[in-house]
Amino acid sequence: MGVDGFRCDVAHYVPLDFWNNVRAELDAIKPVFMLAEASFPELHARAFDATYAWAWNDALHRIWQGKAGVVALPIYYSERDNAYPREAMRLMMVSNHDKNAWEGTEFEMFGDAVPAAMVLSFVGDGIPMIYNGQEAGNPKRLAFFERDPIVWREHPNGELYRRLTALKKQNSALWNGAWGARMVPVANDQPDAVVSFVRADASQKVFAAFNFTPRPVRVAFQHDLHAGSYTDWSTGAAVTLSRDAVLELPPWGYRVYVR
Fold first, then answer.
1. Domains with residue ranges and CATH for the chain
2. Is 221 helix (H, G, I), strand (E, B) or coil?
Protein backbone atom coordinates (compact mmCIF):
# COMPACT_ATOMS: atom_id res chain seq x y z
CA MET A 1 0.00 0.00 0.00
CA GLY A 2 3.03 2.32 0.12
CA VAL A 3 2.76 3.14 3.83
CA ASP A 4 5.63 5.36 4.99
CA GLY A 5 5.60 4.36 8.63
CA PHE A 6 3.66 3.40 11.71
CA ARG A 7 2.73 4.91 15.07
CA CYS A 8 2.59 2.06 17.56
CA ASP A 9 0.25 2.52 20.49
CA VAL A 10 1.51 1.71 24.02
CA ALA A 11 4.62 0.17 22.46
CA HIS A 12 6.32 -0.52 25.80
CA TYR A 13 3.63 -3.11 26.65
CA VAL A 14 4.88 -5.32 23.81
CA PRO A 15 8.17 -7.27 24.15
CA LEU A 16 11.14 -5.48 22.58
CA ASP A 17 12.24 -8.50 20.54
CA PHE A 18 8.90 -8.39 18.73
CA TRP A 19 9.50 -4.79 17.63
CA ASN A 20 13.09 -5.55 16.63
CA ASN A 21 11.90 -8.40 14.40
CA VAL A 22 9.03 -6.35 12.97
CA ARG A 23 11.36 -3.48 12.03
CA ALA A 24 13.75 -5.80 10.21
CA GLU A 25 10.90 -7.45 8.31
CA LEU A 26 9.30 -4.12 7.38
CA ASP A 27 12.56 -2.58 6.18
CA ALA A 28 13.14 -5.63 4.00
CA ILE A 29 9.96 -4.67 2.13
CA LYS A 30 10.40 -0.89 2.23
CA PRO A 31 12.28 1.43 4.62
CA VAL A 32 9.75 2.84 7.09
CA PHE A 33 9.56 5.43 9.86
CA MET A 34 8.59 3.98 13.25
CA LEU A 35 7.11 6.04 16.11
CA ALA A 36 6.53 4.45 19.52
CA GLU A 37 3.99 5.82 21.97
CA ALA A 38 6.53 5.14 24.68
CA SER A 39 9.68 6.77 26.00
CA PHE A 40 12.26 4.07 26.72
CA PRO A 41 15.73 4.56 25.20
CA GLU A 42 16.14 0.88 24.31
CA LEU A 43 13.31 1.18 21.79
CA HIS A 44 15.68 3.27 19.65
CA ALA A 45 18.43 0.66 19.45
CA ARG A 46 16.93 -1.28 16.54
CA ALA A 47 13.18 -0.79 16.31
CA PHE A 48 12.06 2.84 16.48
CA ASP A 49 13.13 6.17 15.04
CA ALA A 50 11.05 8.30 17.42
CA THR A 51 9.46 8.09 20.88
CA TYR A 52 7.16 10.35 22.87
CA ALA A 53 8.81 13.01 25.06
CA TRP A 54 6.29 12.77 27.89
CA ALA A 55 8.89 14.10 30.35
CA TRP A 56 9.32 17.34 28.35
CA ASN A 57 5.58 18.06 28.45
CA ASP A 58 5.42 17.21 32.14
CA ALA A 59 8.38 19.47 32.95
CA LEU A 60 6.76 22.44 31.19
CA HIS A 61 3.44 21.79 32.92
CA ARG A 62 5.04 21.64 36.37
CA ILE A 63 6.96 24.86 35.65
CA TRP A 64 3.71 26.61 34.65
CA GLN A 65 2.03 25.36 37.83
CA GLY A 66 4.90 26.60 39.97
CA LYS A 67 5.62 23.03 41.10
CA ALA A 68 9.05 22.87 39.46
CA GLY A 69 11.83 25.31 38.75
CA VAL A 70 12.96 26.24 35.26
CA VAL A 71 15.92 23.90 35.78
CA ALA A 72 13.49 21.04 34.99
CA LEU A 73 13.96 21.80 31.28
CA PRO A 74 17.78 21.66 31.21
CA ILE A 75 17.49 18.46 33.24
CA TYR A 76 15.21 16.96 30.60
CA TYR A 77 17.59 17.89 27.76
CA SER A 78 20.61 16.60 29.69
CA GLU A 79 18.91 13.27 30.33
CA ARG A 80 17.94 13.08 26.67
CA ASP A 81 21.55 13.61 25.58
CA ASN A 82 22.91 11.07 28.06
CA ALA A 83 20.31 8.31 27.76
CA TYR A 84 19.32 8.31 24.08
CA PRO A 85 21.33 7.64 20.91
CA ARG A 86 22.33 10.71 18.90
CA GLU A 87 19.99 9.77 16.06
CA ALA A 88 17.00 9.19 18.38
CA MET A 89 14.11 11.58 17.78
CA ARG A 90 11.74 12.61 20.58
CA LEU A 91 8.19 13.79 19.86
CA MET A 92 7.68 17.21 21.48
CA MET A 93 4.01 17.50 22.40
CA VAL A 94 2.40 20.72 23.51
CA SER A 95 -0.77 18.63 23.36
CA ASN A 96 -1.92 15.21 22.20
CA HIS A 97 -5.07 13.09 22.34
CA ASP A 98 -4.41 11.81 25.88
CA LYS A 99 -3.38 15.16 27.32
CA ASN A 100 -6.26 17.02 25.67
CA ALA A 101 -8.96 14.54 26.64
CA TRP A 102 -7.92 13.58 30.15
CA GLU A 103 -5.87 16.48 31.54
CA GLY A 104 -6.77 19.63 29.60
CA THR A 105 -6.22 21.66 26.47
CA GLU A 106 -2.87 23.34 25.93
CA PHE A 107 -4.47 26.55 27.25
CA GLU A 108 -5.41 24.80 30.49
CA MET A 109 -2.01 23.12 30.74
CA PHE A 110 0.23 26.08 29.88
CA GLY A 111 -1.84 29.28 29.97
CA ASP A 112 0.18 32.30 28.83
CA ALA A 113 3.15 30.04 28.13
CA VAL A 114 1.47 28.32 25.14
CA PRO A 115 3.32 30.34 22.44
CA ALA A 116 6.68 29.82 24.15
CA ALA A 117 6.00 26.09 24.45
CA MET A 118 5.08 25.95 20.76
CA VAL A 119 8.27 27.75 19.75
CA LEU A 120 10.49 25.61 21.99
CA SER A 121 8.97 22.44 20.50
CA PHE A 122 10.29 23.59 17.09
CA VAL A 123 13.63 25.23 17.83
CA GLY A 124 14.73 22.83 20.56
CA ASP A 125 15.82 19.27 19.95
CA GLY A 126 13.06 16.90 18.81
CA ILE A 127 10.16 16.52 16.38
CA PRO A 128 7.36 19.03 16.97
CA MET A 129 3.87 17.57 17.14
CA ILE A 130 0.71 19.49 16.19
CA TYR A 131 -2.38 17.83 17.61
CA ASN A 132 -5.75 18.16 15.84
CA GLY A 133 -7.15 21.65 16.29
CA GLN A 134 -4.10 23.34 17.77
CA GLU A 135 -3.59 25.29 14.53
CA ALA A 136 -7.20 26.53 14.90
CA GLY A 137 -6.76 27.50 18.55
CA ASN A 138 -9.27 24.79 19.54
CA PRO A 139 -10.38 25.78 23.07
CA LYS A 140 -12.07 22.55 24.15
CA ARG A 141 -11.23 19.06 25.26
CA LEU A 142 -12.14 16.74 22.40
CA ALA A 143 -14.28 13.70 23.20
CA PHE A 144 -12.04 10.64 23.15
CA PHE A 145 -14.39 7.98 21.78
CA GLU A 146 -17.10 10.10 20.20
CA ARG A 147 -17.35 12.21 17.06
CA ASP A 148 -16.43 15.72 18.17
CA PRO A 149 -15.92 18.08 15.18
CA ILE A 150 -13.28 20.79 15.41
CA VAL A 151 -14.33 24.33 14.52
CA TRP A 152 -11.72 25.20 11.89
CA ARG A 153 -10.76 28.87 11.77
CA GLU A 154 -7.83 31.19 11.26
CA HIS A 155 -6.03 31.72 14.56
CA PRO A 156 -2.75 33.35 15.64
CA ASN A 157 -1.45 29.94 16.73
CA GLY A 158 -2.03 28.63 13.23
CA GLU A 159 0.05 31.43 11.77
CA LEU A 160 2.74 30.81 14.39
CA TYR A 161 2.81 27.14 13.42
CA ARG A 162 3.11 28.08 9.72
CA ARG A 163 6.10 30.30 10.45
CA LEU A 164 7.72 27.75 12.73
CA THR A 165 7.33 25.00 10.15
CA ALA A 166 8.98 27.18 7.52
CA LEU A 167 11.81 28.04 9.91
CA LYS A 168 12.49 24.40 10.75
CA LYS A 169 12.50 23.39 7.08
CA GLN A 170 14.79 26.24 6.04
CA ASN A 171 17.32 26.07 8.88
CA SER A 172 19.42 22.91 8.79
CA ALA A 173 20.58 23.43 12.38
CA LEU A 174 17.00 22.68 13.46
CA TRP A 175 16.56 19.46 11.52
CA ASN A 176 15.64 16.26 13.33
CA GLY A 177 17.95 13.71 14.88
CA ALA A 178 21.52 13.46 13.64
CA TRP A 179 20.65 15.66 10.62
CA GLY A 180 20.36 18.71 12.89
CA ALA A 181 22.68 20.36 15.37
CA ARG A 182 22.87 19.59 19.06
CA MET A 183 21.47 22.04 21.58
CA VAL A 184 24.39 23.69 23.37
CA PRO A 185 23.38 25.49 26.60
CA VAL A 186 24.29 29.16 26.85
CA ALA A 187 24.89 30.02 30.50
CA ASN A 188 23.05 33.10 31.73
CA ASP A 189 22.69 35.14 34.91
CA GLN A 190 18.99 34.24 35.38
CA PRO A 191 19.11 30.42 35.53
CA ASP A 192 15.96 30.30 37.69
CA ALA A 193 14.00 31.99 34.92
CA VAL A 194 15.67 31.65 31.52
CA VAL A 195 16.60 28.71 29.32
CA SER A 196 19.04 29.74 26.57
CA PHE A 197 20.88 27.69 23.98
CA VAL A 198 22.52 27.67 20.56
CA ARG A 199 22.08 25.20 17.73
CA ALA A 200 24.64 25.63 14.95
CA ASP A 201 26.04 23.67 12.04
CA ALA A 202 28.56 24.61 9.36
CA SER A 203 26.19 27.03 7.61
CA GLN A 204 23.36 28.07 9.95
CA LYS A 205 22.85 29.02 13.57
CA VAL A 206 19.99 29.68 15.98
CA PHE A 207 20.27 31.36 19.36
CA ALA A 208 17.15 31.19 21.54
CA ALA A 209 16.24 32.41 25.02
CA PHE A 210 12.99 31.61 26.86
CA ASN A 211 11.63 33.20 30.03
CA PHE A 212 9.52 30.53 31.71
CA THR A 213 8.33 32.68 34.60
CA PRO A 214 5.35 35.04 35.15
CA ARG A 215 7.66 38.04 35.62
CA PRO A 216 9.75 40.10 33.17
CA VAL A 217 13.51 39.53 33.31
CA ARG A 218 16.68 41.17 32.11
CA VAL A 219 19.20 38.51 31.22
CA ALA A 220 22.88 38.58 30.31
CA PHE A 221 24.93 35.68 28.99
CA GLN A 222 28.31 34.23 29.83
CA HIS A 223 31.16 33.70 27.38
CA ASP A 224 30.51 34.47 23.71
CA LEU A 225 28.72 31.45 22.25
CA HIS A 226 25.64 33.61 21.61
CA ALA A 227 27.51 36.54 20.08
CA GLY A 228 27.13 37.36 16.40
CA SER A 229 24.97 38.92 13.72
CA TYR A 230 21.45 37.58 13.32
CA THR A 231 17.94 38.21 12.11
CA ASP A 232 15.35 38.53 14.86
CA TRP A 233 12.93 35.79 13.83
CA SER A 234 9.88 37.57 15.29
CA THR A 235 10.46 40.98 13.72
CA GLY A 236 12.78 40.37 10.77
CA ALA A 237 15.16 43.05 12.05
CA ALA A 238 18.92 42.71 11.75
CA VAL A 239 20.50 42.32 15.20
CA THR A 240 24.08 42.15 16.39
CA LEU A 241 24.56 40.57 19.81
CA SER A 242 27.80 41.28 21.60
CA ARG A 243 29.33 39.19 24.35
CA ASP A 244 27.81 41.66 26.85
CA ALA A 245 24.33 41.76 25.29
CA VAL A 246 21.38 42.06 27.66
CA LEU A 247 17.91 40.91 26.62
CA GLU A 248 14.62 41.97 28.14
CA LEU A 249 12.11 39.13 28.10
CA PRO A 250 8.44 39.60 29.03
CA PRO A 251 6.64 37.03 31.21
CA TRP A 252 6.58 33.69 29.40
CA GLY A 253 8.39 35.41 26.53
CA TYR A 254 11.09 34.32 24.15
CA ARG A 255 13.61 35.58 21.60
CA VAL A 256 14.80 33.58 18.61
CA TYR A 257 17.70 34.81 16.49
CA VAL A 258 18.68 33.08 13.24
CA ARG A 259 21.68 33.21 10.95
1. 5-179 (3.20.20.80), 184-258 (2.60.40.1180)
2. strand
